[in-house]
Amino acid sequence: MLPLPRETVQAAIIDLNRAGVFVCDRDYRIGEVDAAFLEMEGLTRAQVIGKHVADILGDRVFALRKPVLDAAFEGRPARLHAAGARDRTRGKTLEVLLQPVHDEAGAVACVISSVRDVTPFQKMRERLSMHEEIVRQTTDRISVVGTDFRYKMTNAANAAFYGMEPEDFPGLHVRDLIGAERFDSRARRQFEICFAGTSVEYEHELRLTDTEARHIRVRMDPYRDDRGRVTGAIIVLRDITEAAHLSAKLRRQAREDALTGLCNRHALKEALEDVLARAAESGESAALVTIDLDEFKIVNDLCGHSGGDALLRQIADMLRSLAGEDVHCARLGGDEFALVCRNTSRADAVDLGERVIANLTTMRFTWEGRSHAVSASVGIAPIERAAEDGPPLTVHQLLSRADRACLYAKELGGARPVVYRPDAREMVAHRTDIGNFEIMTAALADGRFQLHTMPIRSVRDREPAHAEVLLRFVDEAGRVLAPATLIASAERHGVMPRIDRWVVATVLAHLDEVDPATVLTINLSGLSIGDPEFRTFLLDALDARPGAADRLAFEITETAAVRSMATAQGLIDDLRARGSAIILDDFGSGLSSFAYLRQFRIDCLKIDGALIGEVASDPVQETIVAGIVAVARKLGIDVIAEYVEDACTLETLADLGVTMAQGYYIGRPQPWVGYGLAPGRPGGAAAPADQSGR
């Protein structure tokens, strides 16, 4: 081998080291550098050799390193990790080695300084340390098991579960830890799936003792080496006992009524679906019995909610006592209960309903020393095989039938069972009323209303005097519906004040679209007249729109005024004080019209249409109208006749002294000109026949 110069070899070794190396003497003068150092600093050899360390590294870094350099000159080598302090090295972690070099006499002649960027290694160590700490501290039980079913490692949580240390696990066979039976019957198969490259996740119940069990979720993922081969499985065991108990509790609560412990509406629907399926498949007869307590609100008011709850629990216990193997008890909500009866004929269902009523009648509910009578209305919806050409009965339809029967039983006075019959006249009428109410509430919720106007003209000069504002409902298909029956249902169900509020607000918002010379008349329902909140709303709305009251007149029916006389008179006084006129509507429909007429301070009365129809040919009607006009003239008020159908009737009314007329001969209802009609028919669509009123 050829001899190599020693200096050449040493220089090559230093350059291959790739650490930034410089050599300095006791005066901190740099005598030698390697290529890596020059590259690191971006300098040439000529710019570095002979320079002071501070000139190259900067005064701040030199001040930081000088104590360590001085220690090296005293013969003490050093190794340290430091964060980069200069722009070139900021954000990096540097490893600095200082090695003293001795001369032949043993004295330190110089110090070799080596600087290496170890940032990637430092980050790797930090990540590894973090991962190790997470594995150590996590409550999940983590292990790595080789394809020979022996543990490679486990964490502290898993070791503690078995009363062992992590060091005890490497080399331990899974069978020896969990037992041969569990390993062979379940674990081995899961391991083999995982070793084949597929992740596995499942839950199982681990019995610790006869009375204690834990719910465990197991996750197994293939463990691969650097060549991608599966060499084991990573197992994560998580104790989900509390979550499993909570889930079971929530499932039970989702099906169970919290107050009574009976099944709730959700569970009831599932039971009905099963019964309907049986009826469709085998023709099995069954029935749904709904129970609605009569006057439960009275008990609630007298005893408070605690007493009401106690009564509901007592009734639930009574229903359980009646329920056999084929009867499913449920609470629908509030004071409503239900029984799903399997293998039950219509007669048996009626008998059960009567027994429920009898038990409630004899049951005395006592609260705080006071005894209360209890009764209920019962609706029965038989479940029988549908006709072959008919659609199958749905749960919704069945509940609706039982509800309708129950409501009808309540209307009859309660404390009785009623079987649903689709052809019963009373039930059909009730169903129509409920349907009207649903249409009306849907229109109210969706804003599907229209306003129409109908002219009221002077009898003599035919000049327009007033225009009555009429309300129309629009169905989902955009059709304008006749309002009479819908409004009757709205009044029966107590929502007319909300509708009247909408009408008043809409009229005021669009009042500028109407000729200022025309007075608009607005109908107010009896419920609105007696509602203090509506009265406040109406007066505040008028006060917020100066001048509007003078352009409005309010129509109040005679029956509503008589029913709420004091309230009606107070509202009349407030409206007249603001400049609005008051029209007594449907005058003559009551038996005491003349007796009450003087008690109301009104500006005009509108004769009921039933008295106008044959006035031109019926002397009795003519006499009645003449009498009304005479009384009105004495009181100084105008008279409007409605339902004017032809010229002859109008001429007769003019001769009798009627002031104004309204009806199809005078003018039909028309959509409010300029008022937005969407989502009803486009402008110009005629409303269904209805000459006056709403």
3D architecture notes:
With 694 residues, the chain is α+β, with helices and mostly antiparallel strands. The chain has 24 helices and 27 strands. An eight-stranded mixed barrel has the order 18-19-21-22-23-24-25-26, surrounded by four helices. β24, α23 (619-635) and β25 form a beta-alpha-beta unit. α17 runs parallel beside α19. The longest helix is centred in the middle third of the chain and has 27 residues, at 296-322. The radius of gyration is 47 Å and the shape is elongated. Mean pLDDT is 83; it is low at 674-694.
Key terms:
eight-stranded mixed beta barrel, disordered C terminus, elongated, alpha+beta, 694 residues, 27 strands, five-stranded antiparallel beta sheet, single chain
Strand content: 15-25%
Low-confidence stretches: 674-694
From the N-terminal CA to the C-terminal CA, the straight-line distance is 121 Å
Instruction: Look at the helices and sheets and give the structural class.
Output: alpha+beta
How many DSSP H or I helices?
A: 24
The main sheet comes to: 8 strands, mixed, barrel
Helical amount: 40-55%
> What's the gyration radius in Å?
47 Å
For the biggest β-sheet, the strand order reads 18-19-21-22-23-24-25-26
Mean pLDDT: 83
Count the strands?
A: 27
Envelope shape: elongated
